Amino acid sequence: MRSETQSAEVKFDIEVDFEDDTGNDGGGEGSSHDEGSRGTRSSGNLTAKDRGRSDIDDVEEIEDEEPKGKKKDKKEKKKKEKEKAKKKKEKEKDKKKKEKEKDKKKKEKEKEKKKDKKKDKKKPVEEEIILSDSSDDDGGDKDEDDDDEDSDDVETIEETDGDEIPEETILENIQRQKEIIASIRKQPWRMKKKLKTLRVAQEYLNKYEGRLSKGKGYKETFTRAFKKIKRELSNFISILIPWETRIKTIESYFGSVVASYFLFLRWLFWINIVLSIFTMAFVIIPELVAGFPYGSIPRKTVPNDELHRAAHIGTIWDFGGYLQYSVLFYGYYGNAKSIGSGYQLPLAYFLVGISTFVYSFAVILRQMAKNSRMSKMSTSDDQFQFCWKVFCGWDYLIGNSETADNKVAAITTGLREAILEEEEKNKDEQRYITISLRVLANVLVTILLAGSGYAIQLVVERSEQFEKMDPSKLSWWEQNEVSMVVSIITMVFPVFFDLIGGMEKYHPRVMLRWSLARVMVLNLGNLYTLMIALFKKVNNLADEARKAREALQALEAAAYNNTLVAQNATAASLIREAVAEIGMNNTAMADILAQKAGIKEQCWETIVGQEMFKLSVFDMIATVVTTFILEFLRGLFVRFANYCWCWDLETGFPGYAEFGVADNVLHLIYNQGMIWMGAFFAPSLPALNVLKLIGLMYLRSWAVMMCNIPHERVFRASRSNNFYLVLLLIMLFLSMLPTGYVMVSIEPSRNCGPFSGKERMFDIISDTVNEKFPPWMRSVMAYLSTAGVMIPLFMLLIMAIYYLQSLLKSYKEANNDLRIQLQYERTEGKKKVYEMSAAKNGGGGGTTETTENAAGATGGVGRGRGNPGAIPNGRLPTGCGGMPRFPMNHAGPRGMMGAMGGMPGFGGMGMPFQRMGMYSPNVRYGGYGGYVPVRQYMNPYDGVILTPPMAPPRFRRVQYTPQPGTKLMAVPTAKTVGSYSQSRRSSIGRQSSRGPTTVLVPEGYQLVQVHVDGGDDGESVQETSFMDGQYMDDELGAHGGMDA
Amino acid sequence: MGNKQAAFTESQLEQYQDCTFFTRKEILRIFRRYRDLDSDHIPKSYTRGEASRIKVPFEYIEKMPELKENPFRRRICEVFSEDGSGNMTFDDFLDMFSVFSEQAPQDIKAVYAFKIYGETVHPIKVNCCVFHQILEEADLDDDSQLSYMEFEHVISRAPDFLNTFHIRI
Fold first, then answer.
1. What is the per-residue pLDDT for A252?
2. Mean local confidence (pLDDT), B30-59
3. Residue A703 and residue A258 in contact, taking contact as beta carbons nearer than 8 Å
4. TMC domain spans which residues (chain A) (predicted)?
């Protein structure tokens, strides 16, 4: 407690000083500006009457929120300071003083002035306080005027000294001012104060930066210009951010969870934009501009036999024909070492392929780090479950009444569930049934997953056969079987998973996690099976091609040996024979070979790219169709058929579709995985994905606003939560593997693509190293890639990981220890307090330092609207009806509070007792001789303790003269402090240090004056004294009757 | 839109940008929103210190779609208005949305959340059981009160606080 309040005080101290400082610094400006600034400032309110009020009021306003006892100390400190200051001032005659001292002096001077003004007033304290409170708004403007006046005379001193200030000091000051400017937006101040401080700091900078020596001056102007450019840039960028209003509308209707999907989508959109810019700039455009044009070489030409249908819509739809031989796919790119004026396209292609992954990794990791920084160390265990529910429950984004009602209901349900959970934490029945059900569910899910894998495998095999047939004879389904099947599985299987998840009887949140994990596995499995099947197909094709090639070579050799000049026609027939001999029964392949009289292989990289393209497009189509049918048509049906239906469609069976955030996010992740997997084989895939994401954005936002209702399930994977990002990271890693495998261990196609003719794609790097780098570097590289280096490096990495891991573990343990210690101290402290109070009161309640609380826990209490009954509780949620009844009846106390608040005597007072006192039910009440759980009679959000109804509260007025080093408390029955009748709460602190005051103390409470020993670790109560007063039934008895 | 530059001088905008988490465009947009609250009485130009002088009563501010469903709206406006009445000048208004903006760090949000929750009836009647739990969880020094430090301790660990204590304008 002690340390806390102290730290709070220190904080305030800093702020106060800070203001004084800058205020004075501001004084040192040229008078020309003073005129100007006063012009703007004083155009404000000049109606304030108390000219005497000066800056100190602002300061005091802050202080008001400080504990009373501390305040006293502080005042004394201040006085001492001032005295010191006087002495100092006399000393400081010589002109060689430093800037800092001057600052101090100025401050002191001003303080003195203020003091004088205060003294002039000599009004009773309370009045002053009231005055200061009431003239709060007007006073602000006044302050500044005073400030200016004050600074006028300070200024003269400074002007004379100005030239002799050493540059270092100026620099230091400038640095400080800059820090102020940079951090000003993070200060919890009023805008007026911020502006003032800012103005002052900037003027200081303007004035003194000119005096710096040239080099530093240039530097300053440069940094300033840089800052300006940066700001302009950020201004410009903020214009470019798309869909801001769209997301906002959705947010206000559905809350932040649904919006998190759209924000995630937008984030992915940015990533894809960057990726497509990469590929555009370094691969596609160079190839288009400087590479061989279309038709110049075989790999860039549609083969003759395909030409007649190259422009058919069916072929284009398949990304075949002209599209297949275009920059969209890997096969089109030439393997010329350099194109144009020395641009090495193959190298660029390889590097872009790598950097796609590197960039994605970097972005995701950065975002994750940012998120986890923002949410500090959000403990995963529900340590603060209730606090979070209450304090962070409300979603400030909600702007729609229906959603607001839903939210209120949701919070209520959440709280209710939490209470129930808390009560029956260790209740487990029917465990065997549940366990067996869960096992069954997992078996079913495994079967489903295996089935999907098998299906995909099957269709890819079938597609291999279809490819060998004449494309014109195939039906539409047969042509698109692979993508269709994959899309259907992705759409339908999650529904099964949901159904299966229903029988496991997990908590909804756990259930959701399970189903998410399953869908994720399904998606990954699909992609992987597809990839593996494709690779298998590729291998088959490559095998066939190799055989054909070998046959051709054998034939050529034979022809050469026989010294026969083979003519084309005979060569063709010979090849056909040779192929037949070797046992190729694939006549189509042999035909092609024969026709070309050369080697013609399928470009398998292009096939993979095409497959990915198709998959992506089909996925989009499937999304559109399902959205239309499952959401739009369903919504229409439910809406209009409801008039003539035998049950309520809207709330009953079909209902409106919900927006499944989790499913949709998973869909996005799956989609992105597809892009990553295919990007190397089809460089324009990211660009396609950009279009797709734009489409998705509009589709989803339309659908969500048109036909969805908010999701009921509790799932909070929002921006700060790294859950999505972890999934995305896993996806990225897994989709990187196939590409990596292809790069280092599969032979690229011989006659297409940038790497044709190489053994492995990776060779492009080693070739470049060999050619371009100096020999010594080559040997270094060669050495680096040997096992002698790699193995120790690997070991080192593992050791580092292990070390960090154990470090993490120890941190966790330390954290846990601290928590335990905290817990221990809490219980110990509790015991101490009880023992103490038991000793003092003979069974009375514990004491509580109420006003002690830094910033007064209820910071705004002193604002004193004084009407707890009118606090905005008007719109009580509909969901509240479902609250379990607790023994506490709110109506009585609340009504009573309303009456109390309305009492004339309490008008300006705010809360009579500002504390939400909690009380252990085990403590015995002196006044009642029984166990009265006080907590049943108070309302936490009023921050008020209500006295038990059996004792109608009566108040007595107590004259009280505070002693230095003491605190005032009302003790026994409830740990409440007496309230102060005549002034607002904000005056409590000051009152205590001045003359006698009157305090209202409710019956059953005793007023205790506690001597506080500040030196100790905790607060030790040394002595208490009881004061007495008369009950004033005539004045305050009225609300005593309210309750009875 | 045509005269949007006339609402503030360049230096005013610069200063606002220094003091808030907004860009120029956002500041002007907020000003438009502010003007829309009571366009009869708010002048188009704010270059002569009107920003700290002219107030819009709470009854108008309350009707903003961003606030109208918020159970804490009265309290929010009171906290941010200079005199605690809920009537706000443009400075206060801008201040408010700056704190609620996405870029605002957790610390400053926590400070204002503390002020807002300090004296509010939650829309859901919180019964004593919940209250007991809250104190059990958060009241570290066991004085039956939540100090700012304790509040901040709890809030800073909440995963959702930054997202939900946020108004997009």
1. 74
2. 78
3. no
4. 603-718
Is there a single domain that holds both residue A232 and residue A318? no
Query: Which distant-in-sequence residues (6+ apart) come within 8 Å of A225 by Cβ?
Result: none
Mind listing the domains of chain B with CATH numbers? 10-100 (1.10.238.10), 108-164 (no CATH)
SS3 of A945, please? coil
| Amino acid identity for residue A721 in this structure | N
Q: Is the ipTM of this complex over 0.85?
A: no
Q: Characterise A340 by phi-psi region: left (phi > 0), alpha (psi -120 to 50), beta (else).
A: left
Interatomic CA distance for residues B75 and B69, integer angstroms: 13
Q: Which residue has the tokens 């700056």?
A: B98
Claim to verify: residue A185 and residue A302 sit in the same structural domain? no
Question: Taking CB atoms and an 8 Å limit, are B18 and A939 in contact across chains?
Answer: no
Domain total in chain A: 3
Tens of pLDDT, residues A947-968: 333 434 455 666 666 666 666 6
- On whether both A480 and A603 belong to a single domain, the answer is yes
Task: Point out the residue among A396, A404, A833 whose CB comes nearest to the CB of B166.
Answer: A396
More confident residue, B119 or A46: B119
Q: Which residues of A touch B119 (CB under 8 A)?
A: 858-861, 863, 871, 910-911, 943
Which of A162 and A1006 is assigned the larger pLDDT? A1006
Identity of the residue in B100, B119, B130 whose CB atom sits nearest the CB atom of A860: B119
- The alpha carbon dihedral of A466, A472, A476, A480 has a sign of positive
Which is more confidently placed, A970 or B47? B47
Q: Is residue A114 part of a domain?
A: no
How far does B33 lie from chain A, in Å, by closest CA? 14
Ramachandran class of A430: left when φ > 0, alpha when ψ lies in -120 to 50, beta otherwise: left
Q: Tell me: do A312 and A343 sit in the same domain.
A: yes
Q: What angle do CA A867, B110, A384 make, to 5 degrees?
A: 95
> Is the CB of residue B65 less than 8 Å away from at least one CB of chain A?
yes
Contact (CB<8Å) B21/A886: no
Question: Nearest CB to A400: which of B69, B133, B169?
Answer: B69
CA distance B62 to chain A (A): 12
Helix axes A99-121, A136-161, angle to 10 degrees: 140
Instruction: State the count of interchain CB pairs (< 8 A) between A and B.
Output: 322
The pLDDT of A991-1007, averaged and rounded, is 55
Chain-chain contact of A415 with B18 (C-beta, under 8 angstroms): no
- B153 or A262, which is more confident: A262
* N-to-C CA span, chain B: 17
Phi-psi region of B79 (alpha: psi -120 to 50; beta: other; left: phi over 0): alpha
Smallest Cα distance from A505 to chain B, Å:
26
Measured between beta carbons, which residues in chain A are less than 8 angstroms from residue B145? 848, 850, 853, 857, 915-917
What residue numbers bound the domain in which A805 lies? 786-833
